[in-house]
């Protein structure tokens, strides 16, 4: 595989064809924040938190680091004023949905984001798709899916599949950047197995 030389934050980085900017940065010990990325999953490009500035032929633009492939002589800047400002706004928008997510709180501190900037619509789901994609791509079970679209979009377990598969798996739980996934699962479980939740008579 051919070697590609690029520059990230002023450092010369060696990468190979097929790597993304995020892969190359990681290999060089340069941190780019992500929310919807997981190394076992196909790149998704949903959260845009990994946005970086790239320069090619003297022109700069913003791209998603988890999707953009490395190119020879690419110049990447991971912490410009514009990049940080965009990340701050993304974090603030996501915090309207999950204001108590530890992952978001840590990012808010780093980027000076205001958790109360946007009106709260606590769905607790950031629609990062990690749970849905993990179940589909890694477990090949499709027990969890997106339903509805636009502002109504949310995740849901398919009770018939969840009843068979989820109890012994739960591998998607720790991937969730909020607590929504657990809540959704237990709600589904309660609906799917109402008897199992009944307190036995004394
Ligand atoms: S439930 Fe969690 S992991 Fe699943 S899409 Fe929502 S935020 Fe992402
Ligand atoms: S990590 Fe790149 S868009 Fe979410």
Automatic annotation (TrEMBL):
Pfam families xrefs: Fer2_4 (PF13510)
UniProt-listed InterPro entries: 2Fe-2S_ferredoxin-like_sf (IPR036010), 2Fe-2S_ferredoxin-type (IPR001041), 4Fe4S_Fe-S-bd (IPR017896), 4Fe4S_Fe_S_CS (IPR017900)
Stretches assigned to the 4Fe-4S ferredoxin-type domain: 157-186
Residue ranges occupied by any 2Fe-2S ferredoxin-type domain in the UniProt entry: 2-82
MF annotations from Gene Ontology: iron-sulfur cluster binding; metal ion binding
Keywords, in A-Z order: Iron, Iron-sulfur, Metal-binding
Highest taxon of source: Bacteria
Name assigned to this protein: (2Fe-2S)-binding protein
Native source species: Desulfosarcina ovata subsp. ovata
């Amino acid at each position: 595989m051919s070697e590609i030389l690029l520059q990230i934050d002023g450092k010369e980085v060696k990468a190979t064809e097929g790597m993304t900017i995020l892969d190359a940065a990681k290999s060089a010990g340069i941190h780019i924040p992500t929310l919807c990325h997981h190394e076992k999953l196909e790149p998704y490009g949903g959260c845009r938190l990994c946005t970086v500035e790239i320069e090619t032929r003297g022109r700069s633009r913003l791209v998603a680091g988890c999707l953009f492939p490395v190119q020879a002589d690419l110049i990447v800047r991971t912490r410009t004023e514009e990049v940080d400002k965009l990340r701050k706004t993304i974090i603030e928008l996501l915090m309207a949905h999950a204001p108590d997510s530890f992952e978001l709180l840590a990012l808010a501190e780093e980027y000076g984001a205001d958790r109360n900037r946007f009106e709260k619509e606590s769905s607790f789901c950031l629609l990062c798709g990690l749970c849905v994609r993990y179940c589909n791509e890694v477990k090949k079970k499709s027990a969890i899916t997106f339903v509805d679209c636009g502002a109504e979009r949310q995740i849901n377990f398919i009770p018939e599949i969840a009843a068979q598969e989820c109890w012994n798996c739960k591998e998607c739980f720790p991937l969730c950047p909020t607590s929504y996934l657990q809540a959704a699962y237990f709600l589904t479980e309660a609906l799917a197995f109402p008897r199992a939740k009944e307190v036995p008579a004394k």
